Amino acid sequence: MSIDPQRTALVLIEFQNDFTTEGGTLHGAVKDVMASTNMLDNTVALAERARAAGATVVHVPISFKPGYGEITNTPYGILAGVVESQSFLAGKWGSEIVEVLTPAADDIVVEGKRGLDAFASTNLDFILRSKGLSTIALAGFLTNCCVESTMRTAYEKGYDVYTLTDCLAATSAEEHDNAIAKDYPMFSRPTTSREFATALTGAGQVADASRGY
């Protein structure tokens, strides 16, 4: 496997304190799967490798104003849970991108995500196409929700889609494993961060084993 970094975007979905960090409103729901995949350390290491190789790192956080006026007055499903837990409020610590993945100077931060699919309410597609990026690798939260929704749309739009199986987390191991085993192969090329980094840089294994490689 060989991947041209100049045509590649590493898309990081919702690596925000409410998910990633102790004290976050939703951290308790995902921390066990995060630990089982070592997803945060793996993602930090891959982002560093991607930047060094010349790939583009794209952050796609979600946020809402107090009152959640950007969505329906009667939310249900996953968005009801966001409202009930008062998660991802703009300007609050919980909506901030986790410190270890603070965007670098050349990273892109996409604004406007208000639902599940990272393409739906943002200019992500415009950014990727205007920069000539035709390969995307997806990481983040939740494996079977926002990442899967984004994966399906990217596939439909004609991108070459990779899903980074050890850079993801869900609210249960069962949901995480089922999505990767049953859904991901239909709409993407599931791969590990180590395999993706090797294909992207052609440099073999990363020396820093403490970062999960």
Helix vs. strand class: alpha/beta
* Assembly classification: single chain
Q: Strand percentage, roughly?
A: 15-25%
Supply Rg: 16 Å
Question: Quick one: how many beta strands?
Answer: 6
Number of contiguous helices: 8
What is the helical fraction, as a range of percent? 25-40%
C-alpha end-to-end distance: 18 Å
| Low-confidence runs of at least 5 consecutive residues | 203-211
Coarse shape: globular
Mean residue pLDDT: 94
Please give a structural write-up.
The chain starts with 7 loop residues before the first strand and ends in a 12-residue tail after the last helix. The chain contains eight helices and six strands. A six-stranded parallel sheet has the order 3-2-1-4-5-6, with helices on both faces. Strand 4 (135-141), helix 6 (146-156) and strand 5 form a beta-alpha-beta unit. Mean pLDDT is 94; it is low at 203-211. The protein is an alpha/beta fold and 213 residues long. The chain has helices at residues 17-20, 27-37, 39-53, 77-84, 124-130, 146-156, 173-187, 193-201; strands at 8-13, 56-60, 108-109, 135-141, 160-169, 189-191.
